[in-house]
Structure formats: C-alpha cells, structure tokens
Specification:
single chain, about 120 residues, mainly alpha, 7 helices, about 60% helix, about 0% strand, elongated
Amino acid sequence: MEEIVEKLFSHYDSDKDGFVEFSDFAKILSKLEVELLANYPIQRNFATFDINKFPGYDLNELIAYIKNSQKYESLRKECSEFFTKLDEDKDGLVCTDQLRNNPTYALIFKQYSKSEANLEVLI
C-alpha cells in the first residue's frame, strides 16, 4: 500500500518540495477511494492530520491519514481473512506451491505471476 501512495504522492508533488497542496491531497484520496474521516469537510480532515503544521501534507502525514480511514481498515481485514484461507497448514506462511495446488487460486496465481502489477494506472 505504501508503495502505491508513494508513487501517487511523487506524481502530485509537482515542485518536488516534499509536500502536496490541499487540492492534490484530495485528488490522491479520490484515486485511492479513501473516504473522508468522520464525514468532516475535507478542509477539517486536512488540518487534523497536518502533523508538522506546514501548509501542505508530507508523505508520512498522507500515509497516517489513509491508515486511519475505514477503507484501509476494511482492506486490512479482508486481506487478513484471505491470508488465513490461503494458509492451509496454519504456519503463518503462504507458499507458492499452496497457491499452485489449490484449484480455486491456481488460475489467479498463474495469471498474476506472469506479469507485474502496473502501478502507473492509478496516476
């Protein structure tokens, strides 16, 4: 997740000063489909997570905001449940053989192992 946020942040940090402006912050949230916390207006959320009190968000502040979102928590829970299903021997690891040998996941594993995910499609 952090790699995707870093790429988006880098894209929207057009002057490369390590900060994104309010409008770019909103665009990043929209791209990631992250909701506004507690239904506050976006300006209030922006100010709430502005840890360093500079006029923009840095990468750490953006990640902190996203990690406090319902979307992040929902995805974390979903991934955890999915991992538990894949970890058939309950050793805390999912090996490629477990994926290849499972008829449900073998096709998915085969498709995604042939090519890397393209993170640029988010930008």
